[in-house]
Amino acid sequence: MKRLFDIILALVGLVFTCPLQLIFLFLVWKEDKYNPFYIAKRVGKNGNIFKMIKIRTMIVNAHLNGVDSTSDNDPRITIIGSLIRKYKIDELPQLFNILIGNMSFVGPRPSVKRDTDLYTNLELKLLSIKPGLTDFASIVFSDESTILADSKDPDLTYHQLIRPDKSRLGLFYIKKNNILMDIQIILITIFSLFSRRRSLRLLCLLLSNSGASKDLVHIASRRFTLVPKSPPGSDMITKSR
């Protein structure tokens, strides 16, 4: 059922977003006359590497500096790229990944191998299902680039402030996921583009109704200052990346 749901929704999504994607692909190409697509290697289900398709938002060969996490003020982001990232337009080509079958609409966001190599045994369960276009954490940490702004080491900051709770939310999804939950997550994701605060309230309600702990609901509310934490399955805060 989930696969059929993904195929139908991806086809519908492509029909409605292809004109928008073509416009921004042209604008990206026009800015520097280079390939407007960015093909990123990510870790998928069972640890298999796949090629994730995105609209390029950074300068050519931006990945060569070895930094995987991106902040708002990252100098690698192009002028048109900042607009594309703001409204998540760069993620739309992943509808093709969903059709191919190496991604799903909802599931833990795919990570680079350097990140999954640091996973605890508990976090490795995140690789037991297909990665998704969106999930609980995508909504809760939609401001990830803002969190990482001005960090001297964005990758380490990600592992200390974002990864621990992102993994907890992902593990809860794997435990409870169903088609109805997927539909609600997709709708809340779309709504979050217009009202982050209200979307977080809706997400907290969904988590609570799905049996999430008070701690997990509190995490999803984002009504607190992020502090370094240990990832699930460990009592040690990540010290290096």
Question: Can you put this structure into words, describing what you see?
Answer:
- The protein has helices at residues 2-32, 79-86, 94-100, 113-116, 136-140, 144-147, 154-176, 179-192, 196-209, 214-221; strands at residues 37-43, 49-55, 104-106, 132-134.
- The protein is mainly alpha-helical and 241 residues long.
- The protein has one domain (2-221).
- A two-stranded antiparallel ribbon has the order 1-2. A two-stranded parallel ribbon has the order 3-4.
- Helix 4 links the parallel strand 3 and strand 4.
- It is globular and about 50 Å long.
- The N and C termini lie far apart (38 Å).
- The mean pLDDT is 93.
Number of helices: 10
Give the proportion of residues in helices.
40-55%
- The low-confidence runs, each spanning 5 or more residues with pLDDT under 50, are none
Rounded average pLDDT: 93
SSE ordering: HEEHHEHEHHHHHH
The number of domains is 1
Strand order of the largest sheet: 1-2
Number of strands: 4
Structural class: mainly alpha
Q: What is the terminal-to-terminal distance? A: 38 Å
Principal-axes shape call: globular
Q: In this structure, how is the largest beta sheet organized?
A: 2 strands, antiparallel
Tell me the fraction of residues in β-strands, as a range. 5-15%
Radius of gyration: 17 Å
